[in-house]
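Support case: adenosine-5'-triphosphate complex. Customer-provided input:
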Amino acid sequence: MLEICQVTKYFQHQVLAPVDLQVEQGEFIAFLGPSGCGKSTLLNIIAGLEQPTSGEVRLDGQVLTAPGPERGMVFQEPGLFPWLNVLENVAFPLRRQGLTEAVARERALELLKLVHLSRYAHSWPHELSGGMKQRVAIARALALNPRILLMDEPFAALDEQTRMAMHVELQDIWQQTGKTIIFVTHNIREAVRLADRILVFATRPGRIKAEFKVQAPHPRLEGDGLLLQLENQILRELREEMEKVLKEELGDDYHLKKSGFPWHPDRDLGSYI
Ligand SMILES: Nc1ncnc2c1ncn2[C@@H]1O[C@H](COP(=O)(O)OP(=O)(O)OP(=O)(O)O)[C@@H](O)[C@H]1O
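Agent response - structure generated as follows:
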């Protein structure tokens, strides 16, 4: 079990108020909230890329203070090495661990099969679409067989159709591998489509404001009535939070902007704040 115990973070100001969270092995969790509420900071603390100011993160009772092979990470930018082909990119972490080339290639090929890119093993990153690059990034993050996959807005830069295709793909990967997934997003629809538990963040300072369970089976279909109902429920929860941020940032201009504010669950909360 992953435990986040009383974690806080200060940069110039307090970014995270004490956060407590327990995540069971195999859960699919989303961190959802407006821009700047500390979602990425908390994910980076779990990854060991940032240190908490106070509190700790534990995995099966062991305190985590640095990155480790039991956690794989996928960012918004795929970050592939342009001088390595697809297969070599996925094999890279395995080669670094000292595995022989043959073993690393075999494992990388299995992962490319999982993300449906076997045919592109010998392609170069610049020859791939955005969605394909992200599939390579997911395969690479899975190379060391981590227990936990940490994903920081991995589909935010993709067009809508590709993003929807990646939602299907990721649910399939999650079901096939049984990994724990923690997925950061601004997008309510994306969170509801993917996660079984959604943690809604409040801002200034960042903290968990509400939790929603999504009890629909996977793969989830677009337009499912239960999911739409939940989207609206979450939107109501977040509206207050978004208004708070807008009021602070826009001051007197807030009333002008408010009338044109598109309160819709499929809109990225971050882009209006
Ligand atoms: N390394 C850093 N140094 C100083 N301030 C930082 C650093 N990283 C994040 N912050 C600040 O912490 C706050 C939370 O940032 P964070 O990226 O965690 O939010 P977020 O909810 O993930 O937002 P977004 O969705 O826009 O990425 C922001 O005010 C940000 O400017």
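Residues 131 and 162 are 6 Å apart (CA to CA).

Case will auto-close in a few days if no follow-up is received.
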